[in-house]
Every structure is written in structure tokens, then in C-alpha cells.
Inverse folding.
């Protein structure tokens, strides 16, 4: 039986799939939402009200690139007035200092800037955006000059892990509060480029040693989060704190999802904030309730002593790699497919990395919002 639901901790508001970058590991769905189908300002302001009324504490403005929205200021101001902690997750390349200053005055409390590498040529190649790295460095400095906390999101893989120590140093030099060393997760578009990004076992072991040493050396200076690549793990991670337990995600067109990758599950019809309230969806939505708790779990998950720690792992990954949304997450060493998946990682990482398959966006040319 499910216990009485608590309000989610946070909401990830994906304001738009528009983005000037075209990273080969893009976490947005393969099928993107066009600008004319995005929720309008009034819809988002209502969603913010419903989130506050539901008891949510944080709102993370994301995308695509959230600064492509001209009404971002209205959303930040409204969320701040409703006492939600506001965080901007951005590629930073569209931001001006003037706009960042205005966002802070309206209530923006934290900024996360994504970096593709510490070395500009490789970073701009990975993001497929000329001059992007230089602009990111500039914006990160503005964030700290304006007195806001800064997180560096460093997406790592076989083509930049050799610069991990430099990424850590760059984060310290930028006076960041936190560094997220996030190995590429292979869903959606990233799955198309898995062979190009899969790290070798030697790279993985080296990176773990580097992170552990840096955590000790930089204690009190920089918080470092590290996400192990699933393909080299023995147990699944607790995806989003468990399906439908702590977080919810709203797509640009208003679909409410348990996680950002859930739209890969085509068998689900996700409810939309245009049709139902956020509270109703959180409590009653069939997709949210499908994998809540432990009753749904297959063997050996249902008798595992970690079942209320990892909550069965990732359903999107189970579907992508086994074809069965209810299967044991192949990350787990007890999955019958674990060795096969691990073997594919070893094979792909030991071969020459293929060229990236970049996402070709019809809306790739996104102009900075002039404020």
C-alpha cells in the first residue's frame, strides 16, 4: 500500500526546447516541442501558483534554454513572491549582464551554468556553438559578482574526462559553490551517440580517484557531486529520488512528468496542466502512480533490501535497454542483462570514437532576449 503522499520537493520547469547549442548528448526528447506549442505566460504563472499551493519549495527554470523566453522575468518574480526558491539552469550564451542583474532583482536566487569542457575548442565542438565557452566563463563571473550562488554543471564523457582536473580547477577559479560532475546518461538523443561518449574503465577509475581527492582537498571550498555512469554501476541509482516521490517535471507544452526523460515512454498518456490541476495530477495521474512505492516491482527487486533506497532504479532506462518498462533496471548486477550491457560499454569504449550525430534543430537560431 502507498503511504499518504507528501508534496514534491521541487518542480523542474522546462520552459522551452529552443536552444542555440546542439549538444550531441542533449537530454531533451528526440521530438522537440515547437515554440508555438509552448505554454503561454498565464499558464506558467498559474502553474507557479499551483506549485506553491501544493507545498513545493523549489522551482528550477530549465529547457532547452530558458532564457529564450521573453517572459522569464515575470515567472521568476512571481515564483519569488510565492516564496519558491528560484534557480536558473542555463547554457548562459544568450544572457547579458543587464538581464542577469534584472533577474536577480526580481528574485532569482541561484544559477547553474553548463560547461562542455574546460578547454574552449573542445567545449565549442561538443556544444556545436562557436564562442560558447568564452561566454559561459563571462556569465559565471557575473553571477558571482552579483552575489548569487553558482553551480557548474560539467557533463563528462570519454571525450573530456581527461580534463576533469582542469574542470575542477576552473570551478574553483570561478568561485563556484558547487560542481556537478555528471557522466552522460544514455536516454533520448544521447543514446544515438553512446559509442562516442562511453568512457573506458580506466577513465572511470581515474575520474573517481580525482573526485575523491578533490573532495578532501577542497572541503569547505567546493562541493562536488559525482554521478557514476550507469553502465559501470552494480546497483541502480535512485532516479529522481524514486518515481513520483520527490520531483515533477513540466514539459514546454505542459505535460507533467515524473522525470525529464519520461516522454520516451510512449505507452503513457501524461496529463497536461492545461487540463488538470497540478495537485490532481500529482495525486491521481495514472503514470505517476504506476511505479510509486514497491508493489509494482519484479523479482528480485521486491525482496531486495535496497528496494526503498533505489526504488527500482530507472524506468526509462529499463525500457530503452530491455524493451520492458517494468523490467529490472539493467544497471543492477542482478539483472539478467547486466553483463551484456556492461560488455557493450567495454566494447564501445575500446573502439575509436565515432563522429557526433548532432541534433539538427529547425529553431536552432535563437536570438538573445534584449532587455
Amino acid at each position: 500500500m502507498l503511504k499518504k503522499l507528501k508534496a514534491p520537493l521541487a518542480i523542474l520547469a522546462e520552459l522551452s526546447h529552443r536552444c542555440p547549442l546542439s549538444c550531441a548528448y542533449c537530454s531533451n526528447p528526440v521530438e522537440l516541442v515547437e515554440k508555438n506549442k509552448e505554454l503561454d505566460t498565464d499558464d506558467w504563472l498559474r502553474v507557479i501558483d499551483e506549485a506553491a499551493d501544493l507545498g513545493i519549495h523549489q522551482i528550477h527554470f530549465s529547457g532547452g534554454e530558458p532564457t529564450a523566453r521573453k517572459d522569464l522575468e515575470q515567472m521568476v518574480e512571481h515564483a519569488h513572491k510565492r516564496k519558491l526558491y528560484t534557480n536558473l539552469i542555463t547554457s548562459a550564451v544568450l544572457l547579458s549582464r543587464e538581464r542577469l542583474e534584472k533577474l536577480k532583482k526580481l528574485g532569482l536566487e541561484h544559477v547553474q551554468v553548463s560547461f562542455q569542457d574546460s578547454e574552449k575548442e573542445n567545449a565549442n565542438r561538443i556544444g556545436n556553438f562557436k564562442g560558447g565557452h568564452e561566454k559561459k566563463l563571462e556569465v559565471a563571473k557575473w553571477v558571482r559578482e552579483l552575489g548569487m550562488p553558482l553551480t557548474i554543471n560539467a557533463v563528462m564523457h570519454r571525450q573530456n574526462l581527461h580534463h576533469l582536473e582542469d574542470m575542477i580547477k576552473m570551478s574553483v577559479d570561478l568561485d563556484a559553490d558547487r560542481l556537478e560532475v555528471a557522466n552522460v546518461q544514455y536516454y533520448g538523443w544521447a543514446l544515438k551517440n553512446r559509442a562516442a561518449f562511453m568512457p573506458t574503465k580506466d577513465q572511470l577509475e581515474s575520474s573517481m580517484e580525482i573526485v575523491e581527492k578533490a573532495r578532501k582537498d577542497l572541503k569547505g571550498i567546493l562541493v562536488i557531486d559525482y554521478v557514476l555512469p550507469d553502465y559501470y554501476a552494480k546497483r541502480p541509482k535512485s532516479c529522481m529520488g524514486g518515481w513520483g516521490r520527490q520531483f515533477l517535471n513540466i514539459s514546454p507544452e505542459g505535460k507533467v512528468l515524473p522525470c525529464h526523460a519520461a516522454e520516451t515512454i510512449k505507452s503513457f498518456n501524461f496529463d497536461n496542466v492545461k487540463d488538470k490541476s497540478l495537485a490532481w495530477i500529482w495525486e491521481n495521474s495514472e503514470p505517476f502512480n504506476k511505479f510509486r512505492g514497491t508493489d509494482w516491482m519484479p523479482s528480485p527487486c521486491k525482496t531486495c533490501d535496497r528496494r526503498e533506497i533505489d526504488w527500482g532504479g530507472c524506468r526509462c532506462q529499463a525500457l530503452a535497454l530491455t524493451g520492458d518498462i517494468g523490467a529490472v533496471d539493467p544497471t543492477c548486477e542482478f539483472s539478467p542483462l547486466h553483463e551484456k550491457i556492461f560488455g557493450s560499454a567495454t566494447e564501445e569504449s575500446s573502439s575509436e570514437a565515432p563522429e557526433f550525430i548532432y541534433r539538427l534543430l529547425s529553431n536552432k537560431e535563437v536570438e538573445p532576449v534584449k532587455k
